[in-house]
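Notebook entry, structure prediction.
Reason for the run: the old model in the group folder had no record of what sequence produced it. Starting over properly, with the input documented here first.
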Amino acid sequence: MLASRLLTGITLLWLAAAPIALAENAAEDSVRAGEPALRVSKMVFCAGVKSMTPVAVADTFPSDIFSVYCFTRIVGAGDTTAVLHRWYYEDQNLASIELPVKSPLWRTWSSKKMTSGLRGKWKVDVTELDGTVIHSGTFFLE
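New structure, fully documented this time:
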């Protein structure tokens, strides 16, 4: 009986916390006054994407990894538009990938094949089509 009460209490506590977590995510994804309409609410680097979810998120990757993915959640698009993922190694732009954004809350990603000769700091800029940087992130290839 005590175990049943404890389980019920834990379940109720979890259910009470769930709306808070949902509200925090909704606030994170909403457009705030004074901010650009199009923005990145989440950006991570990972070893892959499965079912639209980043897999093996990290900021440092081994030199033998085949590809690194840049996963972004874009918010605030009023109409269908696009963003660019600009991949940089030592300030040299090695790739620019145009990605469509088709709704006010959109997840998208790009990937870059890695080679052991390109060890060090990498950067990805997320830009609007006019080149305006709306977010940047870095990772390291060991």
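Summary: Residues 1-24 have pLDDT under 50 and may be disordered.
The old model has been moved to the deprecated folder.
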